[in-house]
Amino acid sequence: MASAASFDCERADLAPDEKMICDNRSLNDADVKMVTTFDILTTLVAMGNRDKLKEEQSAWLKKRQACSEDVACLQEAYAERMKKLDEAFNDITRPL
After folding, report:
1. How far apart are the first and last CA of the chain?
2. Residue 24 and which of 41, 47, 70, 96 are 20 to 30 A apart at CA?
3. Alpha-carbon distances of 57 from 82, 84, 95, rounded to whole Å
4. pLDDT tens for each residue of 31-86
5. How far apart are CA 38 and CA 34, in angstroms?
6. Angle between helices 47-66 and 71-90 (to 10 degrees)
7. Mean pLDDT, range 1-17, rounded to an integer
8. CA–CA distance, 52 with 66 (Å, rounded to integer)
9. pLDDT for residue 70
10. What whole-number distance in Å separates Cα of residue 39 and Cα of residue 86?
11. Predicted local confidence at residue 42, as pLDDT
């Protein structure tokens, strides 16, 4: 079993959504991309926005967990989260 970026697939107490992500290559890849993007984004946004970003991530994780073992639901959850993270990245104020 491969390791996803945001959690350890070898853990004995994996939640149903985590188990499905570990067992499904495309979901695993989506997890790696999402958590990498999230980690980069948290270093780029202003301090005040980091808390907002982390709160949104926590809310999203609850939504992902609610998908349980539903692959289509999990795929949609990752697609929505990446859209939001991409929007947050595009909203960062950059120097001229």
Report:
1. 45
2. 41
3. 11, 10, 27
4. 999 999 999 999 998 888 899 999 999 999 999 999 999 999 999 999 999 999 99
5. 6
6. 170
7. 82
8. 21
9. 97
10. 13
11. 92
Cα atoms in the Cβ-side hemisphere of radius 13 Å centred on 77: 25
Residue with tokens 């609850």: 62
Q: Which residues contact 84 (CB under 8 A, 6 or more apart)?
A: 56, 60
Helix, strand, or coil here: 19?
helix
**Residue 19 to residue 42: CA distance in whole angstroms:** 26
List the one residue out of 47, 45, 48 whose CA is nearest residue 84: 45
pTM: 0.88
Tokens 């967990």 correspond to what residue?
A: 65
Residue 6 reports pLDDT greater than 90: no
Distance CA 39, CA 42 (A): 5
